[in-house]
Amino acid sequence: MRAALPDAATLTHAVYSGWACVHCGASLARGGAPAGRALGQIGAVRLDVDVYQCLPGRGCAATTEPAPTTEGSRR
Fold this sequence. Notes:
The protein is mainly beta. The chain has one helix spanning 13-16, and strands at residues 33-38, 41-42, 45-46, 49-53. The strands form two sheets. A two-stranded antiparallel sheet has the order 1-4. Strands 2-3 form a two-stranded antiparallel sheet. The longest helix has 4 residues, at 13-16.
């Protein structure tokens, strides 16, 4: 399940610029993945911007993939 994206008007400069994870704020210097498009507006000015997130498995809680489940498995 995807975490909801914040309003673009509330993003930090680093997140808005694509330098930091939209969910946890960690640096994306070692790589990131698209998270979607944050939407926002101040007056007549649209602030919509593509935002990025940590790569899965890099410690960000929002990008941690759930453990795979197998139907019909018995314990």
